[in-house]
Amino acid sequence: MTRIQTAYATTLALGLLAATAAPASAYRVFVSNEKENTVSVIDSEKLEVVKTIKVGQRPRGIILTHDGKRLFVCTSDDHVIQIYNADTYEYIQNLPSGSDPELMTLHPSGNPLYVANEDDNLVTVVDVEKGAILTEVPVGVEPEGMGISPDGKVLVNTSETTNMAHFIDTETKKTFDNVLVDNRPRVAEFTSDGKQLWVSAEIGGTVTVIDPATRKILAKIAFDIPGVTKDAIQPVGVRITKDTKKAFVALGPANRVAVIDTATFKVEKYLLVGQRVWQLALTPDDKMLFSTNGTSNDVSAIDVTNLKVLKSIKTGRYPWGVVVTPN
Amino acid sequence: MRSSVLKTICALAVISVLAGASPAAFAGDAAGAAKPADAKLTIPILLARELRDIQPPLSLLDMAPADDGVSGAKLGVADNNTTGRFLNQEFNLDVVENPKPEGLVADVAAKVAAGSKFIVVDASATTLLTLADALKDKEVILLNAAAPDDFLREEQCRPNVMHTAPARSMLTDALTQYLVWKKWTKWFLVLGTRPEDLAYAAELRRSAKRFGAAIVEERTFQYDPGSRRTDGGFEQVQQQIPTFTQGAKAHDIVMVADEGELFGEYLPFRTWDPRPVAGTAGLTATPWHPALELWGGTQFQNRFKKLANRIMRPLDYNEWLAVRAVGEAASRKRTGDFKELVAYMRSKDFELAGFKGVKTTFRDWNGQLRQPLLVVTPKMLVSVSPQPGFLHQVTELDTLGYDRPETRCKAYQPSK
Predict the structure, then answer these.
(1) Residue B32 is nearest to which of A184, A203, A215, comparing CB atoms?
(2) What's the pTM value of the predicted model, to 2 decimals?
């Protein structure tokens, strides 16, 4: 290749990049496939699966370390958390997790890890550096959702059969308050300013917004979709943009993601996605939202600015959890 | 001297006040600073078990364990208490068992006199009615977890009885909806001779009419079951069933009505025509199946296994639901007040999560819990009814069993 040809090729490549690069860079989206024992890796620009990682049995909750280098997967039927290198996709090691780990969250400092053990009515606190269980916190029946306040002081766990959000002091590792919400609470999510806590109730069909400072209920959001029976509206995944203005709630077998104005708590729009939509993840720039659609074996990619579903991306069987790289 | 004694008394009084307050203070720690600490609340639940003389089932696999149902109630109490820990509520379970109906009524009456108000009942329909009438002037609610008889929900309904056991009509409707979806609508009905078999057959006929199936042939199986456990027997059954089912009009499926399980299990794979079997054997409808894993069922099954060291049976599930209904009401209303709790359980605000994917609620016209029902083979879940497409103006769950406009229950005052 001559020098001129090389220069021309470079210019062409740069031009192409400039034309397609709407977000600054592509993120990778990790999706756990509960029935397939795999994790699908999706490129957030190409919107296609670029890699499938074989993992342990029944992968559900999935998170990344804050530096984006390590991937944690709750492999519920193996009763461990598996750690993978998020760049090479190689298996690194297991973390002890307690029985039947389902969802987990990391302390804002990166350590420890808090895990909901659905079978044992416990939240397990795990030191991720030492790979050791630090302590266990007794909570209600079938602990599930895990949310941590932005300052790391308060951990909230939901219990599906007790129907509560348990407020745990991360210093003392003891519950200091319990707020009853509607039936079968699933996900607990703080706003980035720590002023609101959103808790979804799958069977209750509602989302409860709690003031974390007073534990008073600020709002209870119900959903009404023409042509969809009330019983099919089952809120699970909740994500809120960093500017705290918009919240997204996955509505399970209603096959929709609700878009909610956090100032008025009004539903602005219902986005039609795949079947039995459960978990959600936003890209760090808040431009894209991904939803796992369990029954239709796909992930919906949603343009957050225009509130449009761009594409359904076929994954493994029963996609469950989803997390996006921080950079 | 006197003043120092007074001081001491005062100091003691302060200490005793503090001591009295200390459990509440601890509770305040658990229940939170946002609310005033609730005083400790204890809610006793009674399980009344009539030890009926029931023929053992044909299969060794189906033998009822001694704690059938009881362990479900125990798990319900344990679940209530895990929640109760955060609300300073405690539930306990007391069990009375008696083989004689009049003995059971006397046992229950004694417990009611001692303060029991919430009573889970595992008894025959007639014993349940005797209990309900004997306790009709007391502050008592009976939660029927065992008897499927429709007359308990309809013409013989009682205001002090609610039902977590599905009615027979709900079971036949759930099964029929699936068969109609499969387009297996030409039925060869084989029924036993006992009253419950006739009742099941009657509900099958009603379900067929309601959802568009037809009974093209009907035969009664006359059978003296004799001894259950023998070293032989298959030789005769192998001859007997093909002969019995020979020459029936063209049918899609054999429907068997044999609630006592005296012969139904002999039908699958032995019929003259190669046809599937459904009803009380083969493909059946049930409130619970030990292989159900949907909707968080796995955790529920694991919890039960850990407690009882066996798989969960439908009666366990029905009793768990009954105990949880009381617990759910108490945790929402933060009270042990009988009238308030029962009114709430009957109201349209009450909802109970029962690992069925949707909330379960009580019908306000007869106290029947409405819930999805499972259509199963002995080992696996096949489907969940109501089936898609069977529509209802209020809730699809009311396509199972007698609906509000059909009810013959007069004793219930519908809540507004």
Answers:
(1) A215
(2) 0.84
